Amino acid sequence: MPRKRRFYLPGIPVHVIQRGNSRQPVFFESDDYQAYLGWLKEGANKHGCAIHAYCLMTNHVHLLLTPESSEAISKIIQFVGRHYVPYINNTYSRSGTLWEGRHKGCVIDSDTYLLSCMRYIELNPVRAGMVKKPIDYRWSSYRGNATQYTDKLTTPHAVYRQLAQGYQDRQFYYRELFCNALADDRVHDIRASVQTGTPLGNARFCEQIEKQLKCKVGQARRGRPNKKKTVIK
User: Fold this and answer.
1) Would residue 1 count as lying in a domain?
2) Residue 9 lies inside a defined structural domain of this protein
3) Per-block mean pLDDT, blocks of 10 residues, the chain (233 long)
4) Strand 60-67 vs strand 14-19: parallel, antiparallel, or unpaired?
5) d(CA 154, CA 103)
6) What is the pTM of this model?
7) What CATH number has the domain bearing residue 143?
8) 175 CB contacts (<8 Å, ≥6 apart)?
């Protein structure tokens, strides 16, 4: 069965997930997280990509990126992999595959979903029960987006900047977004789109993407998840 085509477009944000092979850990010590972020920054600068949000979990990674070219994201993932995998194998005397095959990703309608996707990414450690508040987790972009902490890895998206004119006011309003949990149907939509690789947006956005690509890309099923099915974080 042929692999489903991934499609990215210049200037349109993408939610990326990369998991450890068989859901095994890919980070073990603080140095590992720091090494990954260092190569992620280098890869983003090298291949032209803005990073708006990220979260490094024990066995997977969430990224929210806007590429300058359709190939940028795949090149960044490859760049990080070529450096990070040998680093882990050498550091921990291991061999074999670290990541679970190809990364998953979907383009995002920034007007409707960008802030929700940022919240979804930065709330991962809270949903996993690792911390009570997103600010308590060191390996995400939350502190850079919500406080005066300077995160040299991230670039504010235009939608984020529209929260307020001054950066302190923006951070305040961004923190306010986290006072309420994401709606279940919004979480379901984000998960469904990135798992299937289909656009995260309304029908009009999907039509726009198909027009640019000149092909059908489909749309993930919207709405609340089926209670009989297990939803994977």
Assistant:
1) no
2) no
3) 70 97 95 98 97 98 97 96 96 92 93 96 96 97 95 96 94 96 93 92 88 74 51 43
4) antiparallel
5) 20
6) 0.90
7) 3.30.70.1290
8) 146, 147
